[in-house]
């Protein structure tokens, strides 16, 4: 509610006497609402849940999942550390803090953006090598080395404007900062940095992502169709297909989000001073690019059953009443007790009595049965413990079900436990 009041108060301050002021008010309100609610709130909430779930199951995580954790860290920190400054600037209709905050915002957003792009590129390449060529590089310390290399390369390249190669300046609509794309016309160093930033650090990773993900999908679906044609059912087939589709959606969403901004930046590099470019042409591609921080957690929760199960456990740990009715009804219906199940081989051929009378044989079998029905299980036989109801009906049903084969089942309830 406070965002709505502040936004409308900002509109009142703006002069609406001309079309230009109306456009400025429209840009501010759209940027503010999208940034405040969609980017900051949803991204922090979604990526925060991903990080909490990954921390809860840190002992069960495989090494390849560290890249997903790295991507969640990038999205979370970028929305927490940098985007609030842009939102505050939208209230004042100008960039706050002058040059120092512009460098801080531009350096941080560009380095985190490169880190996210390199992370998705690494995920795509590792899965491509594993799926198409059976080469496993995503194990052990290789993932940790890849994460460190990603951060190092992103920070080093984004720091070149601090030493004179390029510059961070406010964007045309004045609510965020980025690389000075127009510096292409100022000097050879700036032109080299701008061209390398666009070609080597934008287009090359995007092409690697698109090509590798398309090859992965083609390989997985072709293998799946070959198994189906031969009538082979493979449980790994569905899991691998679902995992491939998940990473394809993450990569495709990132590419779709950033390509419009890259195209606008390319046009801005070569446009002349005499040609006017409307600020709206920069606002919406920038907002669309920043939306890439939002949808990754939703993709995780939709395609990954482990994340959904951990999220349910996390919510139940904070609000136990969410699952209280089902648990109480279950406990009221039946009391669970541990039961030792001992499986003994049943002789298919009856034993010969060797001259014993029928009464002596029955007496001997009765003594063996009484010995076996004692509290101690027969030594040398495997004993299995399960949880079941102690009612006579359930025990009788379980005994009939297990003793239909060549096994005899003995139930030894453990006393003193509930």
From TrEMBL:
Any stretches that span the bilayer, and where are they? Answer: 28-54, 66-85, 105-129, 141-160, 191-212, 243-270, 282-303
Kindly list the places in or outside the cell where this protein is found, as annotated in its UniProt entry: Membrane
Q: Name one GO biological process term.
A: phototransduction
Q: List, alphabetically, the InterPro entries matched.
A: GPCR_opsins, GPCR_Rhodpsn, GPCR_Rhodpsn_7TM
Keywords annotated in UniProt: G-protein coupled receptor, Membrane, Receptor, Transducer, Transmembrane, Transmembrane helix
Q: How does it sit in the membrane?
A: Multi-pass membrane protein
Molecular function per GO? G protein-coupled receptor activity
GO CC list: membrane
* All copies of domain G-protein coupled receptors family 1 profile, residue ranges: 46-300
Q: Which PROSITE patterns match?
A: G_PROTEIN_RECEP_F1_2 (PS50262)
Pfam family for this entry, one: 7tm_1
Its chief place of residence is membrane
Q: Which PANTHER family match?
A: OPSIN (PTHR24240)
The identity of this protein, by name, is: Opsin 8, group member c
Source lineage:
Eukaryota, Metazoa, Chordata, Craniata, Vertebrata
